[in-house]
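Consider this record:
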Amino acid sequence: MTKNKNVEEKKKNMTDEESNVISMSEGKDSNDDKKKKKKKNKQKKGRKEENIKYSSDKSIINVTKGMKDNFKEDDDSTLDTSNNVMLERTNNHPKVERSFRLQNNKNKFVRLLPVFFIFIVLLGIYLIYIMYHCLPLIYKDYKKVYLKYDLKRGIIEMGVFHFCLIMYLINYILSIIVSPGSIPDTEEWSLNDFQENNNINMENILLEKKKSGERRHCKWCCKYKPDRTHHCRVCKSCILKMDHHCPWIYNCVGYNNHKYFMLSLIYCSITTVFVSITMFTSVRNAIKNGEVRKNKIRKIKIN
């Protein structure tokens, strides 16, 4: 009997322990379920906010317009006060204005350095080619160069060189001066829903759409973008048929100046090849005569 009682007590203890384990596991499961539900609710809220930002519903557009009108007055007042404060500060501290102007001028000067470098290189090549190659061929009594007198060759080479150089300079200057082309300021290309957007953050106004099939638009210019147009951060505008921003011309290569840029490259390559071919003999003779002079000087020193 005692054995049976002990067995029954053990069974009861086992059942109690199992029930406790089951209850603990159920409690853990319930806590996990609660955490999962909270995560799902947070995800749903985030999705709703994203849908509000990136949806194309007209009601949402109207809501953004209403918010824009409500905040416009506050923004105007704050802008007026901030502008007045800045004017007072600049009037009291004229050094601030000078520092800003100096920074802008420095940036412009740094960006124009490649253009100045190209003009300096062209001037050096021009002087070397004319003084040490063309003039010795034209003038008989020209000194310091080891070339034979050849009037026809000198005139022809000088004419071809000047023609190619002038054509290169014309196209290079036009590629700098001519604007690459931008999106026209007409109603066809402007975003009609966001025309009054001067004093509001762009992120709150623009409704970005992904895989919607609608026309592309620029966030910074607030205009629809035609094919192959891109926004240049240096020029701060959308460029039609943009190829790249070239620092050597201080301009973007686009729809209007692409022809001049390509012609400048072609004429530059032609002039460099022409100069290297025609000046080969003069350079070779100069090197040979230089070696002869060195040998003569050595013989004189030895004697």
About this structure: Residues 93-181+261-302 form one domain. The two ends are 139 Å apart (CA to CA).
